Amino acid sequence: MTEILVEDGEPVRKGQVIARLDPFTAQQRLLQNREALRVAEQALKRAQSLVKREIASQERLDQAELNLVQQRTALREAQEHLSRHTLRAPAAGRILLVHAEHPGPVAVTTPIVAFKADDAPWRASIRLTAAQAAAVDPAAPVAIAFPTLPGAEPMTGRVTEIARASEESGFF
After folding, report:
1. Which of 42, 65, 99, 121 is deepest in the core (most CB within 10 A)?
2. Coiled-coil intervals in this record (predicted)?
């Protein structure tokens, strides 16, 4: 991770850059794939020339054509991989939480931000004790405040589901 360009609670536009990953390894892979494609194109030309002069077999030409297709595919994949090093907001919305505290190495499975699109409904799961769950009136409106949205008014909503049984911890 080289840059984190957003903060908790910040609104973002669709396509806005949120963060950038270090592109060095992906750029090196792209350069290697470009060179491998150049070599495959030369090998195909040579195989075509040799087959035309009846010095090489059709099998050699077929193999050179297959190699060229594989190298083109590898180059497209390397280009796609490099493009994913700039993280953009998938829609207009809000950054709920920045997980990455500062630029530095991140694992592939490490979340970088929590994001909520403006047009996506909110869904909250709340752990309640048995007594608290029994006191919930499913017909009553609810209001929820989010500390990560500074200055935001509490959001209103409704109860859509109450678990029928508690977790092992005793919470619903």
Report:
1. 65
2. none
Tell me, what's the pLDDT at 171? 61
**Cα(119)–Cα(91) distance, integer angstroms:** 9
pTM: 0.55
Distance CA 81, CA 30 (A): 9
Residue type for 152, please? A
Structural contact between residues 172 and 128, judged by C-beta atoms closer than 8 angstroms: yes
User: Which pLDDT belongs to residue 143?
Assistant: 85
Alpha-carbon gap, residue 65 to 73, rounded angstroms: 13
CATH tag for 23-84 (out of 1.10.390, 3.40.1350, 1.10.287, 3.30.70) = 1.10.287
CB 64, CB 47: distance < 8 Å: yes
Q: Point out the residues of the chain with pLDDT beneath 50.
A: none
